[in-house]
Write a sequence for this structure.
């Protein structure tokens, strides 16, 4: 239910967004407004306001006289987005390094120990969760709301692609080493090195996805 602090259309937007990220609404799918109204138990007005919001976020595409479609992320989109988010998250690591306290380090030490455990045990789902928490911790530590907002906007778009780059051969171990390099630079107080290591980490993710695409195509060819 919407609260006094959250308009109904915002609540509906959250529900539709969750359906998209969960895969219940597929990329390229035309939304059935009547079915969504029935499913979410709302009228057309708050639903349409919610859809406008999701269009502005880039999750949906509106076509006149047809309706709203779930946006489809292409390889070109990924090629365009990853260098940008690498720059942004690199900057977050740079700013976080300057603000890292002993208390922050104690928390991050534990998080990196858990990340290492997940990698060594082959727990990809656990690794994804801890990886996300660490990235969020760096962004929070950077304490730059404009940086955080822009990164969140791009991450939201990337979630449409349902990326699973850790499934690429050797990627889990590679990702762990990249994370450890980032953190080592932060602990050493080397903001420039932390920034560069974070940029490399994000760009390696894109390369892993490209390898997975190439591998899938080669299997189809066989």
């Amino acid at each position: 239910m919407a609260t006094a602090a959250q308009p109904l259309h915002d609540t509906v937007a959250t529900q539709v967004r969750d359906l998209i990220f969960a895969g219940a609404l597929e990329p390229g799918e035309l939304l059935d407004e009547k079915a969504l109204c029935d499913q979410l138990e709302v009228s057309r007005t708050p639903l349409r306001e919610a859809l406008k919001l999701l269009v502005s976020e880039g999750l949906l595409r509106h076509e006149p006289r047809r309706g709203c479609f779930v946006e489809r992320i292409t390889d070109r989109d990924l090629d365009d987005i990853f260098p940008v988010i690498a720059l942004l998250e690199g900057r977050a690591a740079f700013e976080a390094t300057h603000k890292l306290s002993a208390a922050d380090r104690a928390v991050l030490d534990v998080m990196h120990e858990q990340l290492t455990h997940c990698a060594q045990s082959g727990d990809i789902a656990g690794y994804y969760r801890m990886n996300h928490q660490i990235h969020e911790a760096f962004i929070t530590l950077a304490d730059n709301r404009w940086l955080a907002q822009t990164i969140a906007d791009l991450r939201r778009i990337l979630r449409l692609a349902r990326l699973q780059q850790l499934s690429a051969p050797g990627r889990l171990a590679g990702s762990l080493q990249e994370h450890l390099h980032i953190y080592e630079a932060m602990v050493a107080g080397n903001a420039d090195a932390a920034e560069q290591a974070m940029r490399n980490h994000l760009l390696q993710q894109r390369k892993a996805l490209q390898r997975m695409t190439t591998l899938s195509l080669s299997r189809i060819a066989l």
In short: The first strand starts at residue 60 and ends at 63.
